[in-house]
Design a protein that fits this description.
Elements lengths: L1 H9 L7 H11 L19 H11 L21 H6 L6 H9 L8 E6 L5 H10 L7 H7 L25 E6 L3 H14 L6 E4 L2 E3 L3 E5 L20 H7 L2 E7 H8 L6 E6 L5 H6 L8 E8 L9 H10 L2 E6 L4 E3 L15 E7 L3 H15 L3
Parallel strand pairs: 1-2, 1-7, 2-3, 4-6, 7-8
Antiparallel strand pairs: 5-6, 8-11, 9-10, 9-11
Length: 374
Amino acid sequence: GGGVKSLRTLLPPNNGAKEQEKASDSNHGFGRRMRNPTTTDASPLCTAEQRHKIAHQLMLKEDEEIGKETDMSKLKSEWPRLKSWFSCPKTSWIDKFYAEQTDIGSSDFLGISVGCNKGHDAIRTARMGLSDATIDALKWRDEFHSDFEAICGADRAPQFNVISAKRKGEMHCIEPMPSTFSELQRVDEKLGLTSKGMVFTHAAISSTSGVVNFPNPDTKVGAEWLGIKHCKSDTDVVEKANCVEVPMFSLEDYVAKYVKGSGPINILQIDVEGNDFDVLFGAGSVLDSTHYLEFELGYGWDKNLHVQDAVKLLDGKGFTCYWSGEHRLWRISGCYFEHYNFFHMWSNVACVHRSQKLLYDRMEKVFTDLLEEW
């Protein structure tokens, strides 16, 4: 099916396809972009003891037989921790890395927020990555007028404490909802952040490029739960969402068109209300240049696709992935449980490229230390 084909296109090319890869790169503007060093090792496999501790902490029944035809309602495993622990992560591992390391793996910073919404996370990431204290997340919060509260208290996150020298670079805030994007532009014009490296783009990111219908509900600002799929649903939902055409790009095409720098993508954040897999499908060469990424797993995912599909794809690209919680990480790569195939609840995943050893070691230590807590 289409999903299998898309997964194959994202897996690393065969050794015999290097010339074809170079041609593809020049076509997409990626020939000049700095790529991650090649990693030959896969993510480490969890030991039996580590698997037992993960199962204990996440309330999974290790001896439960699970297959494709398993009725989830009959599973004995409980999900209370999975339901809440991964929905609103506090990513202290990346904050501490940027606070403590002057070498972030590149001289300039490049961040991309796909599904930027109200911009709180993107502004905070820009302050951190560009090491610029004049990019003020609190001023942004006070100026931005939204009709809806920020989910997970994104507007109340603590201001990053800038101590390193300023970095050159860019932070992209990509938002498709017209009413929300207009407010992003208004606040940017007032605070002057474009001159400091922020890039605001009105577009949807998916697996292909073109145009797509996207919700613009009663022109209200800041709705976080609507996405492309809501314009493909039943008539009532479509009418309420007030769908309008917006530009659409694959992530690969977007980077080739809008990103000025040629360095790696230090931080890639994806939050597109159930269409995160489509963004990964269209990422192509972008993943070969990404150090750290976050994406969301939710109700909107295709039930035929599981977090395992994304994790395997990313492992082949050199990434190790973790369930992302409040200052906590549980490794998924090399530690997969079949229970996760039935888990389509709101949750977040954080992945690091294994070539970025300082950040990788830091995240792995968060995981191994957690297993010793209880």
